[in-house]
Amino acid sequence: GAVVSQHPSWVICKSGTSVKIECRSLDFQATTMFWYRQFPKQSLMLMATSNEGSKATYEQGVEKDKFLINHASLTLSTLTVTSAHPEDSSFYICSASLGDPRRSNQPQHFGDGTRLSIL
Amino acid sequence: GQQLNQSPQSMFIQEGEDVSMNCTSSSIFNTWLWYKQDPGEGPVLLIALYKAGELTSNGRLTAQFGITRKDSFLNISASIPSDVGIYFCAGQLGYDKLIFGTGTLLAVQP
Q1: Is the Cβ pair A105, B31 closer than 8 Å?
Q2: Chain B, window 13-52: residues with a beta carbon less than 8 angstroms from a chain A beta carbon
Q3: What are the Cα distances from residue A97, in Å, to A30, A83, A100?
Q4: CA A77, CA A31: separation in Å to the nearest integer?
Q5: Is residue B97 less than 8 Å (CB to CB) from chain A?
Q6: CB contact A34 to B (< 8 Å)
Q7: Is B102 exposed, middle or buried (0-12, 13-18, 19+ CB in 10 A)?
Q8: A15 to each of A45, A110, B43, how far by Cα in Å?
Q9: What is the pLDDT of residues B72-84, one digit of tens each?
Q10: Which pLDDT tens digit goes with each residue over A18-75?
């Protein structure tokens, strides 16, 4: 069964609005979660690493003020796309490892993704 | 961002045929992972490899972690229609980041 839950699964909104996506680990604590973006017919690209209780680490070229990440608890990380524009339309996917990835080499499990469409 | 070279880009095969795809990198990885992604869904883990030279099976799937730690392959034997999807390799740096391959689209004709 799924170990990572993502919500919503799809969202359509007007340009200029902000959209929040949730990623939850089910029945386990995730000190680290990861946010990816996937454009059509392309691979997954890591956007940022979400760390519980501290600031997220963003990949080069990803605007931290545009994509706000909050990892408020050991089972929840949120990604907020602020002032979204059509070019932000994409498939956003989160992942988490079972156990602390710094101590155990557990593979990452992915949520089902969120399809974001900005009109 | 960095991506791994994955080949072939796509494959169109008949049901029952065996499939092989591979992934190469200029960098060394500690872990190689293989995922399958269906349309509109997140990737699902198929096989995880942790040691150079490791050969691991999961049903009809077999994957190997290259000796040089810079490559990996995935084989699917006796393909069936539900094998259709996009297969991604991923290399793991240390214990966190995943770097994904470019993907292999598999189509299986009944």
Answers
A1: yes
A2: 30-31, 33, 35, 40-45, 48, 50
A3: 6, 30, 7
A4: 10
A5: yes
A6: yes
A7: middle
A8: 23, 28, 28
A9: 999 999 999 999 9
A10: 999 999 999 888 888 999 999 998 999 999 998 888 889 999 999 999 999 999 888 9
